[in-house]
Amino acid sequence: MKTLVEFIYDQQENLNYATGEFSRLLNDIGIAAKIVNRDVNRAGLAGILGFEGSVNVQGENQKKLDVLANNEFIKALRNGKQCAAIISEENEDVVVFDDETTRNAKYIVALDPLDGSSNIEVNVPIGTIFAIYKRKSIGTTITKEDILQVGTELVCGGYVIYGSSTMLVYTTGQGVNGFTYDPTCGLFVLSHENIKIGELGGIYSINEANYIYFPEGVKKYIKYCQEDDPESRRPYTTRYIGSLVSDFHRNLLRGGIYIYPGTLKNPYGKLRLMYECVPVAFLAEQAGGKASDGFRRILDIHPDDIHQRSPLFIGSKAMVEKAEELMAAFSSDFVKE
User: Fold this and answer.
1) Torsion of CA 223, 224, 226, 228, to 10 degrees
2) Half-sphere exposure of residue 274, counting CA atoms within 13 Å on the CB side?
3) Same-fold call for 4-192 versus 203-334
4) Which CATH code for domain 203-334?
5) Span 4-192: which CATH code?
6) Please, which residues have CB within 8 angstroms of residue 131's CB and are 6 or more apart in sequence?
7) pLDDT tens string 116-155
8) Strand-pair category, 95-96 with 51-55
9) pLDDT, tens digit, for every residue of 37-95?
10) Domain map of the chain by residue range?
């Protein structure tokens, strides 16, 4: 079976921007993921459950594993010397590697080091989400244009899910492939080749506890999902884990839609555009699905801030388009300029 490293080098020939540096960068992400996987698996025994006692830029209490995961990815990417800067959920500002060996590095990495960390103590699958951008300026200090890139300029998007098995799933615009971690040999091995999401799935994933705060279009879509119509496979099944990686991974493999809308309390939703929405949107499109904020394609949204938030409607194409249709008809007040 083909390992992650072997697959990366094989794919390199089909990417006009890919070089050994890009391959090593992906390998560095894989190395950090193995370390985080180890920490997650032994968290209950190593005393690294619970809160760290600090608050991140999002105003969220940091878990000990949030901090550990963030540090491991920063360390691996710094040591790998292919990354010039990191945008992380856990850091208020961009982490810039400005030394002799990284000043000419070609890539910027945006990541959520540990998505779904509120579920750590109850053994629910959690994950890491990452996006890789190519720098626009090399040999100078990091610029705003290097950092705030639109999703269409993404060169790689992916995630690692730490669950009953650990998987790394990524795309470089050449389809979506998944690699399962084999702890007996310490390698990610190709297990899910050329993943495709169904045009129409049978699952909708949303936190219905916030129903009274949803825009009218989302309320209409939920009722649509619950109607009895065998021709369109309705009613759909509702499945919601509360971890973007976990919910998206299930729907990617089985077909479905994940929705985290804007609400009356949080008009822009709670998911971050650059390191949560954009990488999974890239994966969804490459797998034949769709991703939008309810009105616009996620990959077309220009970020104004590294921690910018966005609503997210993502999954099987027909399901997302139906949700967009109802948003346009009933929720014009939620349209973003």
Assistant:
1) 130
2) 23
3) no
4) 3.40.190.80
5) 3.30.540.10
6) 109, 110, 111, 154, 156, 157, 274, 275, 278, 279, 282
7) 877 777 888 999 999 999 998 876 788 899 999 999 999 9
8) unpaired
9) 988 887 654 455 555 555 665 666 667 888 889 999 999 999 999 999 999 999 999 99
10) 4-192, 203-334
